[in-house]
Design a protein that fits this description.
elongated, DNA-binding, alpha+beta, single chain, DNA binding, 4 helices, DNA-binding protein
Length: about 100
């Protein structure tokens, strides 16, 4: 095992660099249009038929720039999930 020694100044500079890189990675804009596979992953479904049903019923927006390419609007997927979110019956307190 190797031990690496750093002066305080170098250590804090390293920490700041790591934090900055993590912040940049986290703040990257998400793509507006996602593939069918990505849409299924966001929706936590495994069936292409279910994805098609959501599309056909107008529950999620899509774009078809070419005949065999269908892209899904990430925002509409997130909105669909929010519309179908349910609150819990118990708020965690016991009476």
């Amino acid at each position: 095992m190797q031990v690496i020694c750093l002066e305080d100044k170098a250590f804090y500079a390293l920490i700041e660099e790591v934090v900055e890189r993590l912040r940049d990675k986290h703040n990257q804009e998400k793509e507006k249009w996602v593939s069918g596979e990505q849409a299924m992953q966001l929706l936590n479904i495994t069936s292409k038929t279910t994805l098609q049903k959501l599309r056909d019923e107008g529950k999620i927006r899509f774009s078809q720039p070419q005949k065999k390419i269908i892209l899904y609007d990430r925002g509409s997927i997130e909105a669909y999930l929010e519309r179908n979110a349910r609150s819990t019956f118990n708020d965690g307190r016991r009476k």
